[in-house]
Structure formats: structure tokens, C-alpha cells
Design a protein that fits this description.
Layout: E1 8-9, E2 23-28, H1 39-47, E3 50-53, E4 70-73, H2 85-97, E5 102-106, H3 116-125, E6 129-133, H4 138-145, E7 159-163, H5 177-182, E8 186-190, H6 196-205, E9 213-218, E10 226-231, H7 235-238, E11 246-250, H8 264-267
Parallel strand pairs: 1-6, 2-5, 2-6, 3-4, 3-5, 7-8
Antiparallel strand pairs: 8-11, 9-10, 9-11
Length: about 270
């Protein structure tokens, strides 16, 4: 971790302070369409000279930017060409040092599996001022949009959010699936579409009841949102047709999944 001095600002409950030239704003774009972004996030986009945008950021929000703002696509797609994180960090610093108002816009919240801290540290090393504008994290909001609370009185008293980008047993995996299977908490799996079969098999092998409810919410926060409900033993097969982005919820609360009727319009 860097020991460089960091200049980090945050927003108050009032009007967003102007985004000063030479400042980077790390903006969470929320869990779906632009209407789910925060007011502060929108205000930052409206002031941007340049936006560095991920593929899960709400595309409608780009219409809020000034007409002469530069928009740079730095999205990362699984198993496809992508912009390395080091290049993104360098672009943030480069544009800020040129006196521009820089907005780094990504989906959900940038500090939940979003490498937000890496970007903050890169700016700190370069002595670039950073404003953090959190977004509504998809790990909680997407289940809610699918009718699933991650906690519920009398059922579960906590939840665990895990990354599924590598399968159990992979050298890069640091997850303890025995502990997760025995935790008694709701499990929320992000980036786990390709590895869902391996993840559910590992949980069952480590003691999780195969009949435990499970659900996959795909394209959460969008009009074409889809919810697939099953048990942990068969959710991978039932949701085999689902494409990213999708979030899997495993636990008793997944039984609440709204699989028959879309709930997006009701929620927002």
C-alpha cells in the first residue's frame, strides 16, 4: 500500500462543490440504468472535461456530459481485449496534470471489486487531488431489484460478497469455501457466470445443503432484467443461458426471487 499523502474529498448533504481543474472524481455509476446513479455522480459527469468509462457504466449518463467532453472507453470485457489497469491509472494522472476535470465512471461502486483504491493510490502517488463519489453497489441493489433482500429478520443475519472471477482451487483464489458453506449467511457472487458450476459444487461438497435456494439476476437494473430461481444444486444448469453481467444469490432469502414478474419498474 502506498504511503503517499492523499488528498481525498467527499460530498456534503448540500450542493456538490465544483469539480476543480486538475481533479479526478472516482464516480460509482450504480447498478443499472442512469436513473439509479446518485445526484452527486450526475453533477460530476455534468462538469467533466474527460470521462474514462467502463462497459458497465450507465451509457445514458454520458448524455449529461458537456458536448465538448472527451469520452474514453477503458472497459474490461471477460476474455476479450481490454485496457490494462496501469494504463487507466496513467490516463487519470495525465489528464489531471493537463488541468482537466476528470471523471472515472464505472458501474456499481468502484470500491467493491472495482479497483477504485488502485486508482486513488495512483493519483496520490502523482499528487493529484481525488474526489470519491460512491455508487450504489450492485452486490446489494441487484438482488433487491430481483425481489431478494440480502438479509431478512428471522432468516439470516449477515451476507458475504465474493468474487467468482476464478474457480475454487485456482491458484489466485483466496476464498475458504468450507467457511462460506458453514457461515449461515447469504452469499452474493459477483463475476461468477462462467464459474458458477464450480462454485456451487464446492459449496455443496463443503456441507451446504443442496436444497438451499439460489437465484441469478441478470442485467439487473435494466428493462431486460432476468431472474432465474432454483436450488444451489441446480442453479448453474438452470441459468446456463445467462450472459454477464449477472449476480448470484445463495441462501434462504433467494426463495424470495421475483422470477415470474419484472420488478424493476415497481422499485424505481
Amino acid at each position: 500500500m502506498s504511503t503517499a499523502t492523499r488528498t481525498v474529498t467527499h460530498t456534503s448533504t448540500g450542493t456538490l462543490a465544483p469539480l476543480l481543474p486538475g481533479t479526478v472524481a472516482l464516480v460509482g455509476g450504480g447498478p443499472g440504468e442512469a436513473g439509479l446513479m446518485t445526484v452527486a455522480g450526475r453533477a460530476a459527469v455534468e462538469q467533466a472535461d474527460v470521462l474514462l468509462v467502463d462497459h458497465l457504466a450507465p451509457s445514458e449518463a454520458l448524455g449529461w456530459a458537456p458536448s465538448d467532453a472527451e469520452i474514453v472507453d477503458v472497459g474490461k470485457l471477460p476474455r476479450e481485449a481490454f485496457t490494462p489497469q496501469e494504463s487507466i491509472n496513467a490516463l487519470l494522472v495525465q489528464h489531471a496534470r493537463a488541468g482537466r476535470r476528470v471523471v472515472r465512471l464505472k458501474g456499481g461502486d468502484g470500491f467493491v471489486f472495482g479497483r477504485g483504491m488502485e486508482e486513488l493510490e495512483a493519483c496520490a502517488q502523482a499528487e493529484v487531488s481525488v474526489r470519491v463519489i460512491p455508487g450504489v453497489t450492485s452486490s446489494v441493489a441487484v438482488p433487491a431489484l430481483g425481489g431478494i433482500p440480502v438479509t431478512h429478520r428471522g432468516l439470516v443475519q449477515g451476507f458475504s460478497v465474493i468474487s467468482g472471477h476464478v474457480p475454487p482451487g485456482h491458484p489466485d483464489s483466496t476464498l475458504d469455501f468450507e467457511a462460506l458453506a458453514r457461515s449461515g449467511t447469504t452469499l452474493v457472487v459477483l463475476m461468477g457466470v462462467a464459474t458458477l458450476s464450480a462454485i456451487t459444487a464446492a459449496l455443496v461438497a463443503n456441507g451446504l445443503d443442496p436444497a438451499t435456494p439460489a437465484a441469478v439476476v441478470a442485467r439487473g437494473g435494466h428493462p431486460d432484467q432476468q431472474v432465474v430461481g432454483a436450488t444451489v444444486a441446480d442453479i448453474a444448469a438452470r441459468a446456463a443461458h445467462v450472459e454477464p453481467p449477472a449476480i448470484t444469490v445463495i441462501g434462504h432469502v433467494a426463495a424470495f426471487a421475483a422470477t415470474d414478474t419484472p420488478v424493476l419498474e415497481e422499485v424505481i
